[in-house]
């Protein structure tokens, strides 16, 4: 009996101990579970708050950017972009300027400017042309024939006295072959029985022109400075009989350029004047007129 009571007591004590341990374990589990249940919403709250902060920052950035764009647009509207000014061409300048008749001073300035870096000071003084070297200039009211009648009143007598070959009495210089043809047509009421010759390079070989000048007496030559200079160099043309040199100074082409506004024509003209024209003017043999 005593053993049985001892066993029952032991079992009772063991059960009570185990029950207490189990209760403690359960109590420990319950807070953890509660803690776990609490942490999940806290994580969600953190995530949502972080997202909210990010969205606020983005919205703030947008708010900052939008006014800048508006300000930039407002500045563009108030201050429109300046367009680059196109460089004015010779045509633009001449189109706005009033046509003025050429004068001896214009030609003298052109000669001085061209030879300023090519001649010494003493040599430049020799290039100066006196007023007696010039004929009266066209005042933009004359046709070619009326102008020539004014500067050569005794033309009928002069042309009869001219008998030299390879030389002309009157030389008219212009900018192009087409202009030379126009001027030859305008000579009809002035030239009388005088013979005129075309002195330009278009469709005419220089050898043909040399033969034509050597073949018979020619009174008037009309052409471009480049071809006339080439004929003088080849001795197909000489200046012995030349008395009048007329420059087609005031005429303008489709681009409103005068003869001296075209660089290559101006260069050829300066070479032509240098080869013997200026010397003849200083010796009072050649007179220059600006038409």
Short description:
This protein has about 290 residues and is an alpha/beta fold. It has helices spanning about 1-80, 90-95, 105-115, 120-125, 145-150, 155-160, 175-185, 190, 205-215, 225-235, 265-280; strands at about 170-175, 195-200, 220-225, 245, 285-290. Strand 2, helix 9 (about 205-215) and strand 3 form a beta-alpha-beta unit.
Termini, distance in Å? 164 Å
Helix proportion range: 55-70%
- Name the average pLDDT: 80
Largest sheet: 5 strands, parallel
Radius of gyration over all CA atoms, rounded? 53 Å
CATH topology description of the domain at 99-290: Rossmann fold
Structural class, from secondary structure content? alpha/beta
Shape: elongated
State the CATH superfamily name of the domain at 99-290: P-loop containing nucleotide triphosphate hydrolases
- Beta fraction of the residues? 5-15%
- What is the strand tally? 5
InterPro entries: Cms1, P-loop_NTPase
Region (Disordered): 1-101
Biased composition (Basic and acidic residues): 9-18
Biased composition (Basic residues): 31-46
What can you tell me about this protein's structure?
There is one protein chain. Strands 2-3-1-4-5 form a five-stranded parallel β-sheet, with helices on both faces. Helix 10 crosses helix 11. It starts with a helix and ends with a strand. The protein is α/β, with parallel strands linked by helices. 58% of the residues lie in helices and 7% in strands. It has a domain at 99-290: 3-Layer(aba) Sandwich (Rossmann fold). It is built from eleven helices and five strands; from the N terminus they run H-H-H-H-H-H-E-H-H-E-H-E-H-E-H-E. The chain has helices at 2-78, 90-96, 104-115, 121-126, 144-151, 155-161, 177-186, 188-191, 206-215, 225-233, 263-282, and strands at residues 170-173, 196-199, 220-223, 244-247, 287-290. It is elongated and about 120 Å long. Residues 9-18 have a biased composition (Basic and acidic residues). One of its GO terms (cellular component) is 90S preribosome. Residues 1-101 are annotated as: Disordered.
